[in-house]
Amino acid sequence: MCTANLIVTNHEAQSFPSCSLAKDDSEAYKDHCKPQRLEFDRVLCDVPCSGDGTLRKSHDLWRKCMGNEFHLLQVNIAMRGIALLKVGGRMVYSTCSMNPVENEVVVAELLRRTGSSVELLDVSNELRELVRRPGLSTWKVNDRGSWFQTYEDVPDSRKNIILPSMFPSRTSIHEGHTVYNSFDVNSEYNVPFSRNFNIGDTNNVNCDTGGISNSNSVQSLGSKFPLHRCMRIVPHDEDGGAFFIAVIHKLSPLNENQVIKVRKTENLLSTNRTVKLQEQCQHRIVSEALDDKKLLDGQNKLSVANQTSKDDNRIEVKVVSDDVEYSQTESGDRSHRMDKLDYQHKWKGIDPVLFFKDEAVIKNIVSFFGIEESFSLEGHLVTRSTDNARRMYYVSKSVRDILELNVQVGEQIKIASLGVKMFERHRSKDGCSCAYRLSYEGLSLLFPYMRKRILHASPVDFQHLLQYRTINFACFADARFGEEASSLMPGCCVVVLREGCQVADSIAKDPSPIAIVCWRGKATMNVLVSPADRKELLEYRFGFKAFKVEDEKSNKEIDALAEGSL
Ligand SMILES: C[S@@+](CC[C@H](N)C(=O)[O-])C[C@H]1O[C@@H](n2cnc3c(N)ncnc32)[C@H](O)[C@@H]1O
């Protein structure tokens, strides 16, 4: 992923976990040095939608979908976004649909539900070059070809599908939100076609009003919210697709009645489980990395690890955690949800993230690569539980804080991937004194803090390394580079394109040094960079077009190169 500051999850957004240690809001907002609750400065809800804004390229959509079916999911996802947003934070709600039921209707419902806790921002002065039109304040709802102006018009048989919240005139159930008299913000609005739109402008000769006249009575049924602050990007303005954007600002915490009902559930994962896995992982690493230890010592460790492993199988510490219940969308029942949890339990991405805490191994890495103190590895390296610390990922302080919080709340966030891969374990037979090699992915982050294991190659040798991957020391064009390489201790190193030798054009584009991860073997220098990355370097840096990407086996070869078997 190439960034230490990222966690990827694939939760359903409407039930994204709360991760809170705070009993109430006052605690959550106290100035703790560590976060007490997972909250976001910014949230982007680019929600699932009918996609009718892409009609120009997907003609079939016209016949297939209405969009009404997405309404509740969209509301629930956005409500969850607001709940997880920091006070003072902003959330963008967007769709690639033109249907008000997926757009203004959702925004109006959010404003209704959250009362004075949020405001819809006027962003007309931002991104001025973006050609946009104001949001609608009146519309009709289409259901199977029939158009409805109010909920009362909907036949009883469809009242469970077409909801009151889909109509502009629904009254607010919350006090405190500024109420706007209905007004026609759409007088300049001119769309060539429309399905659920009922635009209150008789000048819109192209507007499909669905058989209902644009009378003043429609105006009086307009939304009371300032929905004109939403942005509509329409296909014919800039010869593209349609898009809808609303920016919401959180003013105060939501209260309990505002949609979110917290209920207690059992989480199959637990803090204890992770702590045990953590210990187990450390034992394995110690016993593998320090292979000069006595066998007996190793056996003792193994038996501890086995014991822990057996214990793990039995552990089902039931941790009570927050779960969110949705009043409108809850279609699945409780048992279904638990089945789902069981299923997720087996899912690979659920593997706990473990902090790598083995000080001896970390010290060894720091000393081998000469990593400066200002770049601290301690507390920033994580592994996955099934990986047995084969790969170590570097994470930023903010990610570390979230991981610690997540463990404390019983691992409610299921993490698919995170951080940047920085070190990989190798089993070289070359007599390398460090059990880990660098990963090319993490090189740009670490390189400025590295003081050892760096060689500088001429452009010709650098290019040859990229092209041929393995070069005998004696075969380098620059004999001095060959000597330097052969006098380096075996193991992982970094080869930098010699300063002053970079291609002028590429320096202008990116002045950072051009460096690759290599392995100093017995008699050869081997490049530990994937074919795709080598291709990119050759093409982008050297303008070398003829490079052919090798087949997939090459990644395995990289491991083999580092393990001395090639
Ligand atoms: C409009 S697309 C987002 C596109 C994305 N912003 C991008 O640039 O690639 C909506 C995405 O939401 C995903 N999705 C559908 N249901 C979801 C849910 N309940 N929670 C989270 N994501 C969901 C869909 O798979 C789809 O990828």
From TrEMBL:
Gene Ontology CC annotation, any one: nucleus
SUPFAM superfamilies: S-adenosyl-L-methionine-dependent methyltransferases
Residues annotated as binding S-adenosyl-L-methionine: 25, 46
Gene3D superfamilies named in the record: Vaccinia Virus protein VP39 (3.40.50.150)
Main location group: nucleus
Alphabetically ordered keywords of this record: Methyltransferase, Nucleus, RNA-binding, S-adenosyl-L-methionine, Transferase, tRNA processing, tRNA-binding
Stretches assigned to the SAM-dependent MTase RsmB/NOP-type domain: 1-251
A matching Pfam family: PUA_NSUN2
One of the protein's GO biological processes: tRNA methylation
Cellular localization per UniProt: Nucleus
Record-given protein name: SAM-dependent MTase RsmB/NOP-type domain-containing protein
Species: Triticum aestivum
